[in-house]
Specification:
alpha+beta; 6-stranded mixed β-sheet; elongated
Amino acid sequence: MDARPAGKETERAVRDQAADQATEAFVAHRNLLFTVAYEMLGSAVDAEDVLQETWLRWVEVDLAQVRDQRAYLVRITTRQSLNRLRTVKRRREAYVGSWLPDPLLTAPDVAENVELAESMSMAMMLVLETLSPTERAVFVLREVFDVGYDEIAAALDKSPAAVHQIAHRARRHVDARRPRRVVSPNQARAALESFQRALETGDLQSLLDVLAPEVVFVGDGGGVKRAVPRPVVGADRVVRMLASGLGKLDATFACVPTVVNGNPALVLRLDGELDGILAIRVEDARITGLYYVRNPDKLTRAESETPLTLR
């Protein structure tokens, strides 16, 4: 009897089993890997591309040689995110108008995770944009996901000592630019409710009351939708801009509270159609940042929840 067919069947069975194990591990950690990639890139589309690249490399790995599958997957995701980040940074330099991260509709419980909500807020994501790709990778892995220095060093092909130095530099850079004090979800919601009420009623004084004097409004239309070409700074200027824009509307305007990137936000609709997502930054009970994303390419995850996790 020819034993070769039986041998081939055995090889195929082993390959299938390995593929099943690889798939099971990848699916189990997929939400974590997406969160890592998104924190690194600020783009859901790019994060999904990174996950695809991670998967293609993962299925080629001999799992018998992997002691910690989660750590190994995070390492692959980090490397692929870093490669892509260097590319997208060049692409963003040619972006039309201001660039904002893709808003992700998230479950309300994400807002209760203060660490995750702060790290994914529009304000913090913009701060991360000011880091170099390597600094961002180190900061995200260490400060957000609590990855050890040795593991970060392995992911970045650097020494632990070098990673310590990069982490210190990145932390100092971020601390100088992040919100001075993180407010509770309830405080952020209260500020957003006041802003929404003033916006819907056209009460300009109430708008001025809820906005900090140094508030900054940033709009992102991506050259597809009309948006302010550069940030608008100062409460008076922001209120005048909002009043002028609302006064020119010839459509039914509605705004609905939601949770985006783990933080309170508004969905804005014109005649029932999604127009954009407005996220806020709140400090000392007043709004210091307004971030309005109108670019339709960035609104693909604005109406269905994206699962995120730190573990």
